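Can anyone check this?
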Amino acid sequence: MAVLKAGREALPDLASFLRPFSDLVVRSESRESIERYTTGLLADLKRKTVSDIGRAVAGTSPQRIQEMLTNTGWEPREMDRLRIGQMLKYASKERGVQIIDDTGFPKKGIHSVGVARQYSGTLGRVDNCQVLVTSHYVDAFFDWPITAQLYLPEGWVGDPARRQKAKIPRAIRFETKGQIALGLVDEGRRAGVPTRAVVADAGYGDQPDFLDGLQKRGLPYVVGVISTLTFRRASAVEADAGDGPSPPYPGRGRPRKTPGLEQRIPAMTALALLADLPEKAWKRITWREGTKGALAKRFARVRPRNPPLGFVYRTGPRGRHRPQAGWLIGERPLRGHPGEAKYPGPARQGGLLRLGAGSPAPGGSGRSGPPALGDRALLPGRQGRTGAR
């Protein structure tokens, strides 16, 4: 017999928090099941499945909770909007950042919506799983989930029989994780989330469309990138004289083209750019206390050779120039400390680096430069600040 972990009476604070959502659910039984289910999620249970919660929380059963989750209808976007409003009221102190990430849920079968053999950062490998793209709000005092969307692989999108069996709406089409992430950022902003910048790992930093989307929205960002990604020094780009006159036509064959910026200024990998920094450029940064002591690593950014142009421009396919720039920041473990080196080392060609970008460049050139974001969470901030607290 299961040991009860919660009584029949609703927790006063929880009941108050859930009250605004009641208008979205028609049946009183469903509203009660939502309260009981939420109480179970907060209870001291090792496993919080429907069966475990139904047996451990008084006044309900696994069948009633499953009925609520399966058959009770509500508008999820409106539910999210109300929840975000509650969190903004009680758990935000200033403009924070939106963190984009994804979570993998390992599965054994093939029928759960979106399940496929795919890479999961949570699992650290390719496996049979679902992947949920998430957005999270963080400021100096609070952090909480904003919203999320399940990633639907192309194999699912193009399989009508599978879609019908899983009751996937016809309106849902294939979206990359980067496209989903942009949608989540937009949803958060529409709900009033005060977004100072967007932060993501290399799974999103290596998606040009995602970065271009943030740029179009005028949102500063800090993302991880692989060390083989290429850039151009802004000082070299700004000093470039531009396209010269076309070469004289030799009289036969195709006319020769004027060398473009891509040929005049070869792109460099992030690894090469940061390897060119002197050892003294790497500074120890401590950002907070962890369970085993202070969390600290060494960081460096590409320094100005022609101030204030101490940033780099992104490149596109085949090394094409992109008019978006930012500070390139590298990360290393402390000397003598164990841990994965995220910048460079002969065995870490795929190591992670950081690129911050987003606001107008100095001098009014219309190109993009490093944002003035403050001094936390690896966000490139005021001149001379590269760290976090």
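Reply from J.R.: I decoded it. The longest strand covers residues 125-138.
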